[in-house]
Amino acid sequence: MVEIMADSKSDDDIFVKEVEEEIKQENLLNLWKRFGKIIIAVVTLFIIGIAGFKGWESYDRNQREHQSLNYNNLIKSLAEGSNKKALLILESMEANQVRSYSTLTKLINPTILNSSGKSREKALSYENIMQNNSVEPIFRDLALILWGYDNLSSSQPSKITTKLARLNDSASPWRHSAREIIALSEKRAGNREKARSILKGLIDDATTPNGLRTRASEILSLMKN
């Protein structure tokens, strides 16, 4: 794929690049903070469904406790930068967990692969989740958002806009992130007016998360100079 860089290395280009890198590093944890309750609800409903067949008390309590401990250790290892340890934990979890937890580990896996220099494997991980109809829609959509942030520098804006179109909808919980990705992509392609319009919309939208609104405002301010 050809990198899109229509503008010269101006101050706002450098700033946008820094924002992109910050997003790539932090978006998974930030998205977890924003949508963690929804994801937990999905996992809980899945477990309750199992409980309906087996009975809550008879369900393997030790297995659930072990899975929860592994997941906490995985997050801790990632936070500490212990990628080798995280990969070992991840491999163990994927072999034994219920589907929803397994999907969560698949979403984390590309982050580890990126830190290990395995960019191709990282891209395939997102694609596999996005195209897997057995995965819950909320996780497929999250994989698409993460794919979008990761491909800002390497994909044509039209491709990013097309793939994110269904999330760029007022009913989508991912709409703000989708619009941020599209705006940054248009900015890098030289479509500054379109990028400005999208960023202004994010700033004016009362439902936009504060952190995202702040980024949009800073980028828009630099683009006006």
Shape, principal axes of CA atoms: elongated
Residues in helix, %: over 70%
Q: Largest sheet at a glance?
A: none
CATH topology: Serine Threonine Protein Phosphatase 5, Tetratricopeptide repeat
CATH architecture: Alpha Horseshoe
- Kindly provide the name of the CATH class: Mainly Alpha
Task: Explain the layout of strands and helices.
Layout: H1 11-54, H2 61-80, H3 83-96, H4 99-115, H5 119-131, H6 137-150, H7 157-164, H8 175-188, H9 192-204, H10 210-224
Helix pairs in contact: 1-4, 1-6, 1-10, 2-3, 3-4, 4-5, 5-6, 7-8, 8-9, 9-10
Summarize the structure in short:
The protein has 225 residues and is mostly helical. It contains ten helices and no strands.
Protein described:
With 225 residues, the chain is mostly helical. It has helices at 11-54, 61-80, 83-96, 99-115, 119-131, 137-150, 157-164, 175-188, 192-204, 210-224. The radius of gyration is 19 Å and the shape is elongated. It starts with 10 loop residues before the first helix and ends with a helix.
Name a few traits of the molecule:
225 residues, mainly alpha, Serine Threonine Protein Phosphatase 5, Tetratricopeptide repeat, 10 helices, 0% strand, disordered N terminus
